[in-house]
Amino acid sequence: MQSKGEQHIGVGPESKGEQRIGLLNGFAAYGMWGLVPLFWPLLEPAGAGEILAHRMVWSLGVVLIALVVMRRWAWAGPLLRQPRRLALITVAATVITINWGVYIWAVNSGHVVEASLGYFINPLVTIAMGVLLLKERLRPAQWAAVGIGFAAVLVLTIGYGRPPWISLCLAFSFATYGLVKKKVNLSGLDSLAAETAIQFLPALAYLLWLSAQGDATFGGEGAGHAALLAATGVVTAAPLVCFGAAAIRVPLSTLGLLQYLAPVLQFLLGILYFHEAMPAERWAGFALVWAALSLLTWDALRTARRLRVALRERAAAVTRSTPSTSPSTTTTT
Predict the structure, then answer these.
(1) pLDDT value at residue 252
(2) Dihedral sign for Cα atoms in the order 77, 82, 85, 87
């Protein structure tokens, strides 16, 4: 069976057009994720907890509108009849809540660079979790990349004077989220709808409690502030929709390269826009992370290329071994 990556080898005009649309959506998705640190500070004086709760509440509203427009409800019935998948969705909702909350707090507390590191090391954490939890076998280059990544964490621990807990929390929570979503096997939009449905009541209860305490900023800081809090739903859903459009149109190897666009943009924002400090030891730690990712990317591309060559050779061998079925001609006398 072909992987999604091999399904895009076609070079016809229609295929090229689809890949172009996919690339544009991929750049849009990862570009929005990369620039989102510019958005969260606009929501102050709301705290990270209030912003997070609004994100969960309004995301459900946006996703429900999208599902109504697209008429995509068939997945909901079977999911409700499967307790194990519902439990996995609950786990996914929990870990992505942690991820969102830590990220919002990190950005609004002046830790954009450390937050970007979390998404740089996420592929390395995902590989490590595959070995520890799924007993996957790694190629030598993957082992080397994980080893370099571990050394980078040690260097950054020395540089920060503490473990880079923000980065590690973001990387491990997102890697766990990806692992659980793989087992649930729902599309991005459907999965987000299920997750935010689980998040909705606790988030709404927290917002009502904040309002009762007189600590809520929604409605008390003007219509513009309220609109920005409501826009958290669009900020959450829009890149996911673009990512879904990209995932079905471009090879997985291309998506693997595009995923680095988001942390690169976040890193640049942290350095150039938010003017966060980057002493030499942090540069050294980031350099090790980038070296590990370069090795990982090289190995992935080499493996994908070998797989494509093997598939083509196998197809050619099958073609050569297939006997000719052209009808023979006979003559009568």
Answers:
(1) 67
(2) positive
